[in-house]
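Retro notes
What went well: the complex prediction finally ran end to end.
Inputs used:
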Amino acid sequence: MFKSLRGRLITVAIVVLTAGWQLYSHKTETGQWLKLGLDLQGGMHLVLEVDDPDGTMTAEAKSDMIDRVDRIIRTRIDEFGVEEPLIQKVGGERLIVELAGIDDEEQAKGIVQRNAFLEFKKVLPTSDMDGALRRIDRAIVASLGVDSITALGRAVIQEETSNLENLLFGADTATVDSATAAADSAAAAVADSIEAEENALRPFSSLLLIGDIEGTYLVAAADRPVAEMFLAMSEVERAFPREQIMLWGSELVGQAAQTFYRLYVLEEDSFLTGAELEDATAMRDPQFNQSQVQFEFSRAGGRQFARFSGANIGNYLAIVLDNEVMSAPVIRDRIGARGQIEMGQGTPLEEARDLALVLRAGALPARINIVEERTVGPSLGQDSIDQGRIAGLVGIGLVVVIMIAYYGVAGFLAVGALAVYVLLVLGGLAGLNATLTVPGIAGLILSIGMAVDANVLIFERIREELDHGRAARTAVDEGFQHALSAIVDANITTLITALILFQFGTGPVQGFAVTLSIGIVASFFSALFVTRSFFLAYLSGKKASDPISI
Amino acid sequence: MRLFNNAQYRFIEARKKAYVVSGIVLAIGIGAMATNIASLGSWQNYGVDFVGGSLVQVRFEQPVTAGELRDALGGAQAPPITQFGSDNEFVIRAPLNEDASITEVAEDLEASVSANLPNSGVEVVRTELVGAKVGAELQTKALQAVLFSFILTLLYLAFRFELRFGLAAVIATAHDILITLGFLALFRVEIALPTVAAILTILGYSLNDTIVVFDRVRENMRAKGARKRDPVDLVNESINETLPRTVLTSGTTLAVLTALLVLGGAVIRDFTIVLILGVVIGTYSSIFVASPALIEIQKRWGIADPERKKDRPQPATV
């Protein structure tokens, strides 16, 4: 296919379209043509390190610390109020946290550095809340007034009814799966919520659906903010039964095309904290195709755990990190200082590893320091983008003028190949979701200057062959062939440096290395394949002896 | 249009002059490094990235001079201030107390500036804080990166060409990097992370240029009758044959870099200057350092026998 001119041009067209498609889909998916680094869009870059003033910690201990901190910060992602924070472990003892477009830097640092708190609490049956829910509803009504709740409730109920339609028509399973004993109250909640007036009188309980696990309610993800607002009211707090609290589960539960959060009913006082936990490791039991977490408490912790588990066989135990329920296994037996949590058949080891990390997160043996902190305001980044765009366009313009002035028609062909090259690099960056940084823009612009190098090598070769009296077509073939070894060797050595740069660098420098690497690969293709195809198209209308413009 | 067509310059014969030029430039650079060690305590003007510390970059809506800003920050006691790009932007190397947060420092700075320079429209656009240990590690890592890429290129060239080509290329590249470092030391350009990226890019560019010349030498060595030819003639011919390409590629690259220098903004200005310098030195060294080095190595150790290694692997054609 590469032999025929048509095949070549079709290949070029396919590659161009693919690159264009990558850019386009990146734009439609993320709203940006390319992912911008912090130095371009503004934001905060933090590097955390384990505090080890005496140098007594082993590398493994540090690495484990960082994993735990990583896990802790990930549970707090929502608190940052930014989309997709980047959290990356580097070199076994540091953690990079990048927060794009952050508003309150002090608050963000507080979230990162705050100690994690791990507790074990008893899960209570939801029936314990029955009386309390009515009191809570009344307290909310009394405090906010019917009008403001209806005002608020209208929004809630509108969504609620659409949710209900889903539940009623698309998702009978959701209620069928749940415990039938509680189905009555669920049906009641469903029926009630249809009428706005009545709902206003049951503002909180109307948000709760009966849970899929004992001791939990389900709250539609869309309703969570309202439910959180109610739970935060001091009147509601007072209306709670003594020694009981409600906490959110960490994971989103999908049921019949809808997503819910679990709301757990728990005993307020934790019977044990993470401080008593000495170790937790994930294991795989190949015999039962089961993942499990083995844990070990201190002696005192073991005694407490034994007392609790002995008295609560068959009940659920909530593992709570930073006031969020991470997991709630059922207690099968009396457990002392050592025990294990079985994750269920077929659960991947990853989940067990994650739970083990959560367990170990509660007792960090050392402090975490911020060793590097950079913030860039959004205006500075926008300036860099604007200036880079102008510099790039002017640079490309200069190259176009030089090439066409120097090589005539051949220069024009090279410019065409250069256009393909630029599209390829941008498409490659979009396709790999690589981050564009300020040095990355410079790398991109520099690579344009260097991308013509391969073309220049080829054209000079063709000129030499023509000087030796070869016919145009032979000269072109020979030119491409003879220039090849120089192009290969030069590009590979540059690629070696780019790869080392990637290894060495962080953030902006890595962005530069990625741009440079993609540029090298793209220039390889554009010079050797695209330019040659264009050349063949140019020659196709000529006789072998006709002169060419080069 | 054609430039340097059929040029017949005796480059290799001029190598002694080139050695003197390179020697003087290198001596100035090394002298500057020594002076820096004596006066700054460090051979380069390392920025926050490499020695740790903190900086706050401010931007004003109204033009403000560095002197005014210095007065606003306490006159003689003011932290070091440098202008950054345009008239209205300054970088303040803020002193940082133990446990103080850079955000607080920036807020304090902003407050005292707007108190003393009302209506100037001050805005903090960038803050940086790097721990001393992180910075020191980065110095080591940067050095390792450069050395490591030397070794890998040497190996690659020894494999694709011959060992002496690899040695000559590494000598030329080391020469380029030393001169660049000398320049940075002389003008006390602040070394930041992107500067290291620029130095490694120069390394790549310089090698690229050298390889194009060496590729031609390799090819001419394989031609008929090459064994009987004077190596100096052969290398001269190779340089001259590739001269149009060398000039044109340097030209387009420099054109693009100039656009970047003039229009690209202050953030990458130092970076671009280093790259421009590198392109010029890299072009010079591939002709006047790498090629003579090849000849010198052959003269000293005489490992050259062009015919002995004629079956080099040829890359596939596309």
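What we learned: Residues 507-540 of chain A form the longest helix (34 residues).
What to try next: split runs per interface for comparison.
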